[in-house]
Design goal:
heterodimer; A: alpha/beta; globular; B: alpha+beta; three-stranded antiparallel sheet; 29% strand
Chain lengths: 235, 122
Amino acid sequence: MPPESPTTPAAKPRILEVRTQILKKNDELARDLRARFRAANCFVVSLVSSPGTGKTEFLKQTLTRLQQAGDLNLAALVGDLRTDHDAARLAESGTDVRQIETGTMCHLEADMVERAIDAADWNLSDLDLLFVENVGNLVCPSGFDLGEDLRLVLVSTTEGEDKPLKYPTIFNTADVAVVTKMDLAEVLGYDAQQMRDSIQDVRPGMTVHELSARSGQGMTEWIDWLRSRLPVRPA
Amino acid sequence: MHELSVAISIVQSVTDARRDYPDETIAAVNVRVGALSGVVPEALRFAWAPATQGSALDGTALNVEFIPAAADCQTCQATVELPGQRLVCPICQTRTPRLVRGRELEILSLEFQPQPESRHAS
C-alpha cells in the first residue's frame, strides 16, 4: 500500500465545537427545582459528610428542636445506598421523612430529588424548610447541584483537623461547615484552631458552626443562625 | 466513583450534539476538567469504556485536558496558579477566595472520523 498522499484533505481531523457543561442536564434540572422551591417559599438545606460524621443525629436533633418550636412545617429526604434506617431515625422527630435508596449510586442527583418530592406528593407551598441528606461521601456529591439554597458540609472532631485539606472540593462547593461531636473534643485532644484554619484554607470566609448534637452544645446558636437565613414569610 | 455518572452525562450530551451530523463517525471527544471540579481525570478515562459500551461512542477516545486552579490574589495584584487545592496564594500565603480557573467541567469538541474519499463517483 502506498502511503497516503499528504495532500489528501480527508487526513485532516474535522472538529465540531460543542462547548457545553458536562453536567448541563443536572444543572438545568437543579435550576428548575430551585425555581420551584423559591416559588413555593420552601427553603432547602442539603447535608454532605463522610459516613459516620453524625449527619443523621445532627439532623434529628435539628428537626426535634424545630418541631418543638412548632412554627415551621418541615420535611426531609434522606439518601442512602441501602436501608431506610436513617429515615426511621429522623421520623422520630415527628417530621415527614422520605428515603431515597440510591442503590449503587454514591451521590444524589437533581432528578432523584425531583422524583422523591413528586413521589412524596408534598405540596411544597405547605413546607417552610426541606432538608436533603446526601449519601455519606465527601467526594462524589460535590459537583451535583440539587437545587438547594444552602449546602452544609459536616466534619466531626474524630476525623482529623486536616480533613478539609484532604477533601477540598466538597468544602469549596458548600456554603457552611458544621463541626460535629464537639463533646469529644477534650478526650481527642482536638485542635479547634487547626480545623478552622484547614477550612479557611480551602474555602476562605466560610461560616463554621462547632457543636454537639448529643450534648446540645452549640445547637441553639446553629438553629438561630439557620432561622436567620430563612426567607421572610408572607404574612 | 461518580466519574461514571459524569462519563454517562458526556455520552448523553454528545449523542444530542451529533444528531445534526448523522453521517459522521466520532473518533474522539475532547473535554476539560478543572482541579477543583471534583472529577479525577484518571477515573474519568477509566469510566469512559463502560459508559460508552453499546452506544454510538463505543470505541471512541476521550481526551481530558486538566486545568490547574488559579485565583486572583488581592495582595500580589495578580492571577496566581495554585499548586494544589488550597485557595492560598503560593507567593504571599494570603487566602485568595476569588477563583478564576479550576472549576471547569466542559465538553469542548468532537473529532469526526475522516470520511473516505468519494472515489470520483459518477
